[in-house]
Write a structure and sequence with these properties.
The structure holds two protein chains of two kinds.
Chain A lengths: L1 H4 L6 E8 L3 H12 L4 E5 L52 H4 L10 H14 L5 E2 L3 E7 L2 E6 L2 E10 L5 E2 L26 E5 L3 H10 L5 E6 L20 H8 L3 E14 L2 E8 L4 E6 L1 E4 L3 E2 L5 H4 L3 E2 L4 E2 L13 E3 L22 H18 L14 H11 L1 H5 L4 E8 L3 E9 H6 L5 E8 L5 E9 L2 E6 L11 H10 L5
Parallel strand pairs in A: 1-2, 1-6, 2-3, 6-17, 8-9, 8-13, 9-10
Antiparallel strand pairs in A: 4-5, 5-6, 7-14, 10-11, 11-12, 15-16, 18-19, 18-20, 20-21, 21-22
Helix pairs in contact in A: 2-8
Chain B lengths: L6 H8 L9 H10 L1 E5 L4 E3 L8 E6 L2 E5 L2 E6 L4 E2 L1 H6 L6 E4 L3 E6 L4 H7 L1 H22 L1
Antiparallel strand pairs in B: 1-8, 2-7, 3-6, 3-8, 4-5, 4-7
Helix pairs in contact in B: 1-2
Chain lengths: 495, 142
């Protein structure tokens, strides 16, 4: 019992304090420990898992973990086919979510996901101080002080991995009187009901999909047309939730409308929703239920008052490419909040940081960045000049960091004549193209305006960065001669 | 990224010439279609010679248009940029750099065509702005 009651990370002074024990916090502490960065991890929860202890409401994720992907389970490359497991350098800690899946779907259930996260924490021996709630923050000299229910933590860098799972409701008259997505009842409660869903993103379509066998009529409304992932290369509503949209197209009792919501009122036996069509026409709906699926916000506590500037209706902090507050240096973010850093956004793409698939890689990059800021040396591998081109193309073809975080994360190799050719690891592309530095090359995988993927090399030569787009490939294999020759040419004189 | 709501941005948009002909529901749809983006002083928004840039409308702040490091113009609230590169499918011929904290709304390049077709009054306003720029450029040359 003594072992069970020993709680790690008592209040005190640490170089880094991480807040949160969802996938973002767990991946962060794993990565910091690997690099030997001393830190504390605090969580108000009683166990690991974060939002997956509660959501998604209808119990199945919309991101794949393919039990039999093209790459071997447990390999580094397999992470591209398993978007939900946290990542590790040790094989026994890899690909944990598929180990709990029962084979009925390659979208894990909520409990399968939560089991994978708990196993990562337990088998990895990750230490989190559970039941320790961050309550307030202040600055003293060059330190931050995090006040908790158990005392004060002092640190140079604080990393907030507090998720984005608090209900957010826009200021529309009466909308706050209707239940938010998080309050939706089991689907059978809506049997025979007319249901009005405010919103047209994943959570709105997830609810509509679950209500299809029960509701009499479903209306989804918001001012713009739905953005569908099948048309917008990954962004938008996932195909898994598109059956209600197909019903709309077929005229089968689901209506997907472009309208702004003017007012929501309670009536004697239900609700009245007044709308204005985006392209004209006012319309009033009498329904049995209203569900507010307008999304979520991050619980930033008193950080805005301390100087952390926000955007997107104060739902996210403004961050630099390393996920540091642009207005309060030393305050960092991990997990799904990192979606607020867009990178260079070619063709509008902004990485894949909202989901575990993407932000698990961000955590490794942030850990290395924090280690550097603390003067802890991160081991780097030297390369032979003749190996650089095949190495970069192998990374573009197989590296899960580059495939999950298209256009955001890059493999960087420095080509300094005095220092030799050195692998600088994975870095945000926006940092590489906009910061000064020695001659170097960065490779990323990007998506063009038609939704096709291809690698692009960015070459820094004499302080100037140039872009070199490489061709795509129908089998997504960029390791052949058609890619070697142009990359070799882009690096001529540097190797 | 864009969500429902957006009243504060809708209020700003209603005061900009580019969106002056739109109804409030249309302005709400615009605020849901574009993403809000902030840039710090010195940060590049458009990068000369890089493909894949987007369309931006400035809500607040100031930006410089720089060609090979030389400032050619300054942009402020209500100004927009990036459309030439998107319409022609060519990389921008200039950097656009934030001179102080810059707040924009951004539309992904591949979405511009559908957006302008859906909102012909915005397209007309954009054409007027282009005509003005062309006239000023011609005056400057003569």
């Amino acid at each position: 019992m003594a072992e069970l009651t020993r709680r790690p990370h008592p209040p005190g002074r640490y170089p880094v304090v991480v807040v949160g024990s969802g996938p973002g916090g767990l991946q962060m502490t794993y990565a910091l420990r690997r690099l030997g960065v001393r830190h504390a991890v605090l969580s108000a929860d009683a166990e690991p898992g974060g939002m997956f202890l509660r959501y998604p409401l209808f119990q199945r994720l919309n991101t794949w973990s393919k039990p039999f992907g093209p790459a071997d389970r447990g390999s580094r490359q397999y992470a591209w086919f398993d978007w939900n497991s946290l990542i590790a350098d040790e094989t026994p800690l890899r690909s944990l979510v598929p180990q709990f899946m029962d084979g009925t779907s390659y979208f894990p259930s909520r409990t399968e996901m939560a089991s994978g996260l708990a196993a990562f924490a337990a088998r990895g021996g990750l230490e989190v101080r559970y039941g320790c709630r961050w309550e307030a923050t202040r600055r003293e000299g060059d330190e931050f002080v995090l006040v908790t229910n158990e005392g004060e933590y002092r640190c140079r860098f604080a990393v907030f991995a507090v998720g984005m799972a608090e209900p957010w409701i826009p200021s529309i008259p009466g909308l706050d009187t209707a239940p938010h997505y998080v309050k939706v009842m089991p689907a059978r409660v809506y049997a025979g009901h007319r249901v009005f869903i405010v919103g047209k993103r994943n959570s709105a379509f997830e609810v509509a999909d679950a209500l299809l066998p029960w509701a009499r009529l479903i209306v989804l409304a918001s001012p713009r047309p739905p953005l569908l992932s099948v048309l917008a290369a990954g962004a938008g509503v996932r195909a898994k939730y598109l059956v209600p949209y197909e019903d709309h197209l077929l005229g089968g009792g689901v209506f997907v409308l472009e309208a702004s919501i003017d007012r929501v009122e309670r009536t004697a036996d239900g609700w009245r929703v007044s709308t204005s069509g985006t392209h004209g026409g006012a319309r009033t709906f009498e329904v049995d239920d209203v569900i507010v699926a307008t999304g979520f916000t991050s619980p930033l506590g008193d950080l805005p008052a301390l100087g952390v500037a926000t955007f997107y209706h104060d739902r996210l902090p403004r961050m630099n490419p390393f996920w540091e507050s642009t207005t309060l240096p030393g305050i960092f973010f991990a997990g799904t909040i990192t979606q607020g850093a867009f990178g260079i956004r070619k063709h509008g793409g902004a990485g894949n940081s909202a989901g575990v698939a993407g932000f698990r890689h961000n955590a490794g990059v942030l850990a290395a960045h924090l280690a550097g800021r603390l003067g802890i040396e991160v081991p780097r591998q030297m390369l032979r000049p003749e190996d650089v081109v095949p190495y970069l193309l192998a990374e573009a073809t197989h590296a899960p960091e580059l495939l999950n975080q298209k256009g955001y994360l890059a493999r960087v190799v420095s080509l300094d004549r005095a220092q030799g050719v050195r692998d600088e690891g994975i870095l945000p592309l926006a940092h590489f193209v906009d910061e000064a530095g020695a001659d170097a090359v960065a490779i990323v995988v990007e998506t063009d305006k038609d939704g096709h993927h291809h690698p692009t090399a960015y070459v820094r030569r004499g302080g100037q960065v140039t872009e070199h787009e490489l061709p795509g490939d129908p089998m997504l294999n960029y390791e052949g001669g058609a890619h070697r020759a142009p990359l070799q040419a882009a690096l001529s004189g540097l190797l | 990224m864009a969500g429902t709501g957006g009243d504060e941005i809708v209020d700003i948009l209603s005061g900009l010439a580019l969106f002056a002909d739109l109804t409030r529901p249309q302005l709400q749809a615009v605020s849901h279609t574009f993403d809000e983006e902030w840039f710090t002083e010195g940060q590049r928004i458009l990068r000369q010679g890089f493909t894949g840039s987007n369309f931006y409308v400035i809500l607040d702040g100031e930006a410089a248009v720089r060609i090979d490091g030389e400032t050619r113009a300054t942009l402020g609230r209500g100004d927009f940029f990036g459309e030439v590169s998107v319409l022609l499918g060519e990389p921008p011929t200039a950097d656009v750099v934030a001179l102080r904290p810059l707040r924009c709304i951004a539309l992904a390049g591949p979405e511009i065509e559908q957006f302008l077709i859906s909102y012909p009054r915005v397209m007309y306003r954009m054409l007027q702005a282009q005509a003005r720029r062309l006239r000023n450029a011609n005056r400057w040359r003569s």
